[in-house]
Amino acid sequence: MDNNNLWQRVLEELRLSVSKPYYQTLFLQTTLISLENNVATVSCTNPYVQGMIENRYYSLLKSILDSQTKNNNSLVFVIKTITKQESKEIGPLFEKEAVRKPVFDTHTGLNPKYTFSSFVVGNSNNFAHAAAQAIIQNPGGAYNPFFIWGGVGVGKTHLMQAIGHAILEKNSDFKVLYTPSENFTNELVQALQDKNISVFKKRYRSIDVFLVDDIQFISGKEYSQEEFFHTFNALYMAGKQIVLTSDRPPSEITKVEERLISRFMGGLTVDIQAPDYETRLAILKAKRLEKNLTIDDAVLDIIAQNISSNTRELEGLLSQLVTQASSSHTELNTDFAKSFFGIQKQKTSKILQPKNVIAAVSRQFQIKTSDLTGVSRRAEFVFPRQIIMYLLRDELKIPLVKIGEMLGGRDHTTIIHGSEKIRQLFNNDASIKQQIMLIKQTLSE
Ligand code: ADP
Ligand code: MG
C-alpha cells in the first residue's frame, strides 16, 4: 500500500473518532510524507495544527496507524505549506523535505518532546516533580504505584513520559512502555478476537516501567479492569515501577472495582494544579526556546497574564498568536498581543463557568482550588468556600445539589447555610462586600 492510500485509510478511521470541525481543520490537510523504520513523518499546514495534533491526538493517530500497519510506529510532524505553484514545480510532494529524525525507541510509545529538560517546575507541580525524581533514582522501590492526577493540560502526560525517558537514559536495557489506558483496552479486545490472549499477557507482564495514561477511562470496562488488575499485581510483585495518571484522584474514579482503586492508592498520589503566573511565564519562555521563536518578554507576559487555565491552552494560544501575526504580516508586538486578547475575551466572557469562580476565589485567598473543592473543614477553607457557594448559587444559578458535588460532595443544606451566610454578610459588612465585588470584577474582566 502506498503512503497516500495508507494515510487515507488512517484518516477514514480517525474521522469516526473526532468531531467534524476538528477533523476538517486539523486533519484534512495532513499528508503522510514517509514511513521508514516505523517512523511516520506527517506534514501539517501550520504550527497550531501541528501542536494540536501532537498534544491531543498523538496516541489516537498512533493507535490507528499501528493497527493499519500491524506495526509499532511513532509519528513525527513537520510543517509544510504548499502553494499551487510549488506543487507544480516539485512534482511529487515533499521530496526535498528535511525531516527531523527522532532519536528514541519506537517500542516505548514515548514522545521525544516530553522530557525533563523541557518540563518547567513551579509551585503547581514541584511536589509531583520531586517524587518523580525519587522514582527515577529507584524505580519500583520509591513510590509504587505513582499516581498523578490533575485537570486537562496541566502536564500529567509530559511528566509521566519524562519519567520514562529518564529511566531509560539511566538503564538502557529497561523495558519502558507508555500506553493510554484506551490502548490497553483496545489491545485486549483485539487479543480476545485473535485468540492470542497469552501473547497479550506476556507482553504486558514483561515490562519494567509501565506508564498508563488517563486510567479513568477504564471506568465501566469490567473485563479490562480484571486484566489490568492481574497485570498490575504481576508487575507490582516483581518490583516493577507503575505510573498512572488520571483527571481525578483514585477515590473519585467511578465504576471501577474497589480492589483496583485500593491498588491505585497503595503508593503515592500527587496532584498537579494549573500553573500560576510565574510558572506560566517560565513555560512560555521554554516554548519560545524550543520552537525557536523571536518574541519579546513583554508579549509573553501578556499571554501569561491572560491565560490562567492550563498549559495546553497557553501553548495553543502562543502558536495562534504567532500564526496570526505572520499570516497578517504584522509585527508580533505588545499591541498586537493586546488586541488579540481583546477579541479572545469578548468571545469567552459570556460563558462564566464554575471553575472560573473557584479559580478567582482561590486567587483572592491564595488557597489551592483542590483545598476549596476538597473535603477538609479547616477554618481557613470554610469562609472562601462559602463565598464560592454564594457565587455559584446567586450568580451562576447552579442547582444546590450540583454545587454540593463540586465542593467535595457536600449536602445541599450545607450549601444553603453557606450561601445564606455570605448573602447576609454581603448586605451588612462593607469590607466583605468589597472583597466579593473584587472577585466579581475579576470574573467579568
Ligand atoms: P495533561 O496530560 O495533563 O492533559 P500534557 O502533559 O499533555 O497535559 O501537557 C499539555 C501541554 O503542555 C504539553 O505540550 C506539555 O508539554 C505542556 N506542559 C505542561 N506542563 C508543562 C510544564 N510544566 N513545562 C513545560 N511544558 C508543559
Ligand atoms: Mg494527558
From TrEMBL:
GO BP of this protein: DNA replication initiation; regulation of DNA replication
SUPFAM superfamilies in the cross-refs: P-loop containing nucleoside triphosphate hydrolases, TrpR-like
Region (Domain IV, binds dsDNA): 326-445
Domain Chromosomal replication initiator DnaA C-terminal residues, every copy: 353-422
Chain intervals for the UniProt region annotation (Domain I, interacts with DnaA modulators): 1-97
Any single Gene Ontology cellular-component annotation: plasma membrane
Functional description taken from the UniProt entry: Plays an essential role in the initiation and regulation of chromosomal replication. ATP-DnaA binds to the origin of replication (oriC) to initiate formation of the DNA replication initiation complex once per cell cycle. Binds the DnaA box (a 9 base pair repeat at the origin) and separates the double-stranded (ds)DNA. Forms a right-handed helical filament on oriC DNA; dsDNA binds to the exterior of the filament while single-stranded (ss)DNA is stabiized in the filament's interior.
Domain notes per entry: Domain I is involved in oligomerization and binding regulators, domain II is flexibile and of varying length in different bacteria, domain III forms the AAA+ region, while domain IV binds dsDNA.
Family membership noted in the UniProt record: Belongs to the DnaA family.
Subunit structure comment from the entry: Oligomerizes as a right-handed, spiral filament on DNA at oriC.
Protein name: Chromosomal replication initiator protein DnaA
Organism: Candidatus Shapirobacteria bacterium CG08_land_8_20_14_0_20_39_18
Record lineage: Bacteria, Candidatus Shapironibacteriota
Gene: dnaA
